[in-house]
Amino acid sequence: MPPDRCEPYVLQSAQNGQSRQEPGQISVQPAQVEWPCGDGAEPEPEKGLDIPSGEAQDLHKILVAMQHSLTQIGSKIDSLSYRMDRMTECLDKHAERLDQSARRVSEVEDGQTELATSQVKLNKELNSLRLKVDDLETRRNNLHIVGVAEPTAIDNMEGFNERLLVQLLGRTTFSDLFVLETAHQSLATHPLPGAPPCPIIPRMLNYRDRNAALHRARELKTLQYEA
């Protein structure tokens, strides 16, 4: 076993009468100093941290407050995380609605293109029908005179037909505003010699004169014209 303590040795010179040895000799003597030495040395006791009780209570309060604050922060983080999840769901729903709206807008644009094409077609048909209606309204004031040969040399066809109608039906049949707007022969082919002449189609400006002429012609039944 190693010694609990070991004594240091120092070399001393035998001078000044401090030793019985002769001058010049060196002696080894134990010194009066001791310290721990070797594995079996006894350790010195450690000194603990001496904290006053008041400061310890303050530190405890601070730690408790910090723990409470951390708990509150964690709760707020959980609340924020929940809100973020809700916002993500809302954004997903809005994105889906935007996609649906984009599809609907595309469908509306396609339908608008089809409507524009249909509108052009309908406008053409409407113009054609309008022309037909105008023609029918024009024919509403027309008369159809058959059996009267058109003179070969005549400058005013309307005047000729006015005189013809007055002679056939009488002046009292027509109003004071009796006027023929136009008069022409039908577009039939020129008749052969001995065949009946082409019909004459006068158009009156007032449809009442036209109706009166038809009514008077039914009453007379037979009309005679003297060229």
TrEMBL record:
Name of the protein in its database record: Uncharacterized protein
